[in-house]
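Take a sample.
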Amino acid sequence: MKVLDSAQITWLLRELEVAGVVAMRRAAPYLSQKLWLAQQLPRVDIRTDAAFQLRLSRHLGLRGKLRQSEPALFALMGELIAQPPERFESVLRSVSAITGQVEKSVASELFALFDPKAPVIDREIRELLPRYGFDALAEAPDLQECLEWHGALQGLFEQILSSAGWPKAYNRLQLHLDAGLHAQLSGERILNAALSHARRTIALMPVPRLAVERPVAPRESRVLHVCR
């Protein structure tokens, strides 16, 4: 499991605090939609509920082969609702089987509807975290690489939420969410959404001199180079 050192965690949280105002305003509709979908799962009949299907499709950002295979995805979702998944691997394998490629983003979004502490692997997260020294994930990883990265990401979230700087960052982030919304969200969900929606703002921030001078792995070096 990849672990960041205390300086890297401090750097991440400081930048997240700065970008938090914009990030959480952007994230609020996404979080509200995710919470609504999760709350509807016990009572929805996804086979016939067209309104739920539409909102789920928009939330997942379906495109390409998955958009063309919506009936198969909704059928799978019905199975997951009937027997909620306990492991990300089962969801990843099932969703990926529909298209024949590793559907890391959609599978993690679906699994997170059932597990409020599970991370979501979206493009923003994948592009942001190497800035702080976290291992990059390839655009087209194999299934095992994806599973390992998802587990490492969950470990990173646990590390951040247990850090001394998280309470201050959390208090700043939750100010930009309605009280009724943030009270129903896990710390992991708020952190995930904040990082995802802050990436574009953070990318414009200069990289601290200490981070530039530290020896870095080649993949981290590429990320530091493009962040200006």
